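seq/struct pair 1
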Amino acid sequence: MIRILLIPSYLRGKRKFLPLLLLMFFAAKGAFGQTVTATGTNGSCPSSASITATASGFAANANMSYRLKESASGTFVQPNDGSYQVSSVFNGLPAGSYIVEALDQTNNVSANAPPVTVSISYLPMDLSYTKTDITCLGASTGQIVVTVANGSPVYSYAITSGPVTRPAQNNATFSNLPIGSYIISVTDACGVTKPLNVELVNNLVNLNNVEVFIGPYLANVVLGDCSSKQFSIYDLATNGVQGAIYGRIRVSYEYPAGSGNIYGAGGVLNAPGVYYNGGGPASAAIPFPSSLGNTTSPVNVVLTDDCGNQRILNNNRLPEPRYLAIEPSFCNNGITLTMAINGNTCLNASVTFTDNADPTKIFPFTLSTTSVIIANSGLEPGHTYTVTGVDGTNSALFFIGNKVSSVNQVSTPAANTPAYINFYNIR
C-alpha cells in the first residue's frame, strides 16, 4: 500500500514545516498503519488480572517488545523501570486502567493500544472465633474455633505462635490447648494469609466460694403424694451473693449425712451430679431412691467442679417435716380457716381442734386436697384450742401459723381484723 501526503499550496516552498507534518501523520497510526490492541482479563484474587497485547501492521522483520503503564499517572508497571519485555502478556495486575506500548526494535517503530481497564472481585478475609477457656488448673482443655468470611475458599489454618503450635490443617477447630496467647494464620485459595490473635485464660470455679443459698430439701416430688420423693435445693450463692456459675457445677447429695453415700443423676449411687442451671423451686433435683425407705435422716449437698473436685457442704438438713400451715381470719363474727399441706405431708390429712375450756367441743377437718378454705369453722374467738393431726400415713403433723407462742390459742379479734392461732409444736 502506498500512502500519498498532499501538501496544501500555501505551504509549498516552506520546507521548514514538512518534517512536522510528516511526524503528525505517522504518529496517528504508526509509521505504516501499525496498530496495537489490548485485551484485559479480570481477576478473582488480589493482583490476579492480566492484559494481553496484539500487534498488527508492523514489518515482517519486526522484533516486537512491550511495556505496560498506568493510564492516569503514566507510571510504568511492567517492567517497572520503563524497559521493554518480549512477552505481550502482563500478569499479576491489580485493578486499574492501563496502556500497552509496543515497539519494533528492528525498525524503531512504536504504537500504543487504547486504555484497557481490569477489575478484581476478591474481598479481604474477615476472621472471627469462639473459644473455650481452661477450666482446670494446668490442664489442656481449651478450644478455638475459627470462622472465615470472604476471601477465596478453601482455607487452611495453622497455629504459628503460642504455648503450642499446630501445622496447617483444613479443620477450623483447635482442641486440647493450654492457657496462653495464640496467633492463628489462615490462608485462602488465593494464597493470602491473615493472622488472628486469641487469648485462652484460666476460668476455674472455686468451690470454696459457693454455698447453698436455700435448702437442701428432701420432700415429695408432688405435693401430698408420698409415692416418690426427691433431693433438691432452691439456689446457690457465690461469695455470699445469690446465684452461681450456671452449667459449671454439678450437684449431688450425701444421704444419710456423713455416710459417704453420694447420690447423683437419677438417684443412682456414685453417679455424676446434675448441673446447676439457675435457682428456683426444686432446682438440681435428684430422685430419692425408694430402696432407702423412710426419709428420716439428714442430708448434705455435694458440689463437683469441672475438674472433678468435690466439696461436701455439711448442711445436715433434716428431711422436710410433715406439716400443715393454718391461717385463721375473722369474717362475719366467725373464724375462717385456710389450711395447706407442705413438705412430706401425705394426703389425706386429718386435723382436730379441741376446745380447752370444754374438751367435748371437738372440731375435726379433713384435707383431701393440698389446700382448703373452711368458712364458719365453728371455732370461737377468745377460746383456746389444742390442735392435733395426722397425715395419710398416720404420721403426726407439725403446724405453722401466722403467730408463734407457747400455747395453742385463737385470740379474740377486733371486728374485721385477722384472728390469730398460736402453736407451740413448731419445727
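seq/struct pair 2
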Amino acid sequence: MTLRKRIILQVLLLALVLGGLTCYLLVGTWRINSRLSAFRQSTSALLGIADIQLGLAHELRAIWTSLAVDLPIDRETLEASGALIDQTLENLSIAAPTMVERGAIESADWRQRFDQLTQLHRLWRRHLDQILTASDRDQLNEAARLLLEDQIFPALDGLLRHGAGQARKQQDQLEEALGFFPWLQGSARRLARQVEADLDFVVAGNQVYTLLNRQFALLQAFRAHKSKTDLGRLRLLLELTDESLLDWHRQALRRLGPSQEENERQLDLRQVETVKNGYELLSELYQGVLSFGDQPSADLLDSLVAEIETLVQGSLRPGVLSSIRNGIEAIHDQTSQSGHFGVLALAALLVGVLVQALVSMRSLFRELKILSFGIGQFRSGNLAHRIILDGRDELTELAKSLNRMAEDLERTRRDLEEANSRLEWKVAERTRLLEENNQELLAFNHMVSHDLRNPLSAVLGLSQALYEKARGDEDESQVALRHVLAGAEKMDRIINALLALSRVSSQPMHLDAVDLAECARRSFADMQERHPIAGAELVVPESLKVPGAPDLLFLAIDHLVRQAWKMADPNRPLRIELSCETGPEGTCCLLRDNGSGFDPASVGDPFDLRLSTGKGAGLPGAGLAIAARIFRRHNGDIRVESSPGQGCRYHFTIGVPKELGA
C-alpha cells in the first residue's frame, strides 16, 4: 500500500468515527436544549399569569380597604401595580411568537385566550380610571363594584389551567429528550419533576392568596352595602378557596422527598399549614356571618375582617421561585457537562488515532527531512547534490524527479552563462557605436549650421540690397529677388533652429530653483520693447519656483511667450496668463493666450521640428519644438490646445530632471 493510500485510509477512518460521535452529541444536546428552552418559556409564562392574577387581587383588596375606612385611594400604588402588570403582559406578548415556534404553547388556543385577557385587562384599567377620577362617593362605589363583577379572574383561571397543561406537556417532552443520553435519565429527570412540583406549588399558592384577597374585598363591600349579591359571590369564593387550600397542601407534601432540600420545604409546608389552620378558624366566622344572612353583627364582621387581613399579609417564599430557576439551570448544566464529557471522549479517541498516525509517519518525516535538505542545496545553487531515498513510494519518485531537474538546471545554467557573456559583449559594442554616432551627428549639426551661416549671410545681405535697389521696378527681376530673399530667410530660420536645438540637447544641466513667473516677465518685457503691442498684458503670480536648469527653462518660457506674440490677434490686446500647481510627480503649468490660434488638424504635430520650420506667421514655429525638448529633458512634457480665433493653451509639466549637470 502506498503512502498516499495509507494516509487517506487513516483520515477517512478518523473522520468517520469522529463525525459519528460528534453528530450524536450535537443532535442529543440540541434536542435537550430545545426542549429545556421550551419548558423554561412555558414555566415563565405560567408564573407571569399567576403574578398578574395575584397583582389584580391586591389592587382589588387595596381599593375596598380604602373605601371601607373612608380613606383616599393610593393612586401611586395602583399605578405602580398597573405598570408592573402591563410590563408582564407586554413580555408575554413579545415572547409568544418564539414560544409558538419552539412548541412551548399552542398557537391558536393561546392567542385566543391571551387576546381575551388583554381586552379584559384594558376594561379593568378603565374601571380603575373611573375610580381614580370619581367626583363623589356614589360614583366611586359604583365603579368599585364593577371590579367585583369583572370577568378577568375567570379568564385568568382558564389561562392558568391551559398554561399548566402546556408546562406538563413540555416536561414530558423534556424527559423524552433526556432519554437520548442514558446517563442523564436518573438525575435530570428527577430535577425536572422537582421543578414541576415547585411550579405547581407556586401556582397553587398564588391561587390561594388571590382568592383570600378577593374574599377580603368582597367582605369589605358587604360591610359597606349589605348586598345579597356580594354574599352569594362570597359563598362561591369560599368553596374555591377550600379546594385551592387542599390542592396547595397536597403540592407542599409532594415536594418533600429524600433527595430534596428538606429544611426549606419543611418551612414552606409549615407556611401552608399555618394558612390552612387560620382559614379553618376563618371558616367558622364565615358560617356565623352566613347564618345571619344580610344582617350580621358589626362585631362579627370586624373579627372576620381582622382574621382574613392577617392571612392575606403572607406571601410565597422567594426560595421557591429560586428553586425553580435553579432546577432548570441544573438540568442545563448536566446537559452541558454531558457534552463536555463527550468532547473529552472524542479528544481521547483523537489522541489515540494521532499517536498511531505519528508512529506510522515516522519514516515519512525522515524522508521529508532528506528531501528538505536536498531542496535547500538546490536552492543555494549546489545543483551537483543528489537526493538518495530507499523505497518505492511517491517520495522516492519525487526525489528522482528532483535529481533529474537539478541535472537539467545545471545544463541550462551553463548555457545561460555562455549566452549572457555573448550578449554583454554585443551590448557594449552597440552602445559604443551609438555614442560615436550621436557625437558625429552633433558635430555634423554644429558644423553644418556654422559653415552655412557665413555664405548664407552673404547671400541674404546681397539679396536684400538688390531687392531694395530694384524696389521701384515691377519686372521679373524683382519677383526673382523676392523668391531668393524668402528662401534665404527660410534657410536662416532653419539654421537658427538647428543651432538652438543643438545647444539644448548638448548643454549640461545645472539644477537650481527657477522662478517661472520671473522668466515670463523678462521675456514679456523684451518682446514688448522689440515689438510693442498696445494694451498687452501678462498675468502671473508673484512667484512660481520649480527645480531645474535656469537657462534652459528661461529659453522654454521665452519661446512660448514669443509664440504667443507671433500669433497675437490684431483686433484685440494680447493677454498672456501663466499658472502652476505642484503635485507629488512634479509641477503642472498652464500658459494661455488670447491670440488668433490655429487648427491642430491642419498643422500636424506642432512640436516636431521637421514640421515647424518654414511656416507662416499665423502658425506654430520651431520654438515649440525647442521648448518641448527642454521640458522632456526635465522629465516632463507639453501639449497644446487651440482652435482658430480662441487662442492657445500650453499644458506643460516639469518633473525631476533625468540629467544632472556637473
